[in-house]
Design goal:
This protein is an all-alpha fold. The protein is built from six helices and no strands. It has two domains: about 1-20 and about 85-120, no CATH class; about 20-80. The protein has helices at about 1-15, 20-55, 70-80, 85-95, 100-105, 115-120.
Length: about 120
């Protein structure tokens, strides 16, 4: 169990955080959230201008005109929530094993000999 505390947790975190698909999915989610936030604020601001000045405000040249940023953001959130990390499947199987430490060491073989001495 000491191996899991010392090296295993760091290895799990490293494997999850370095997963390329996670990076791509989070980047897309951030962009979609930014676009949606911009669109919502622009729409609100346009509404205030129309109300305050009693004029028609042409939003047809807006970058968000006709774009459903809310749907794009919802799709990116769903993509993020459904993201599968292969390493997590391996970890779940290993943790159900009788000798989960040995299984985890096979998944994350970077542990040193000094850590094996701590197990004794």
């Amino acid at each position: 169990m000491i191996w899991l505390k010392k090296r295993g947790i760091a290895s799990v975190a490293e494997s999850v955080l370095n997963f390329e698909e996670l990076d791509k999915t989070v980047a897309c989610l951030v962009v979609a959230a930014r676009n949606d936030g911009y669109a919502q604020v622009y729409a609100k601001c346009s509404h205030h201008v129309v109300s305050a000045l009693k004029v028609d405000w042409d939003t047809s040249r807006s970058a968000t005109h006709g774009v459903n940023t809310d749907a794009a953001l919802a799709a990116r959130k769903t993509e993020f929530n459904n993201l599968q990390l292969p390493v997590m499947d391996l970890i779940n199987v290993a943790l159900q094993s009788d000798d989960h430490v040995a299984q985890l060491k096979e998944i994350f073989p970077n542990g040193g000999e000094d850590e094996d001495e701590d197990l004794a």
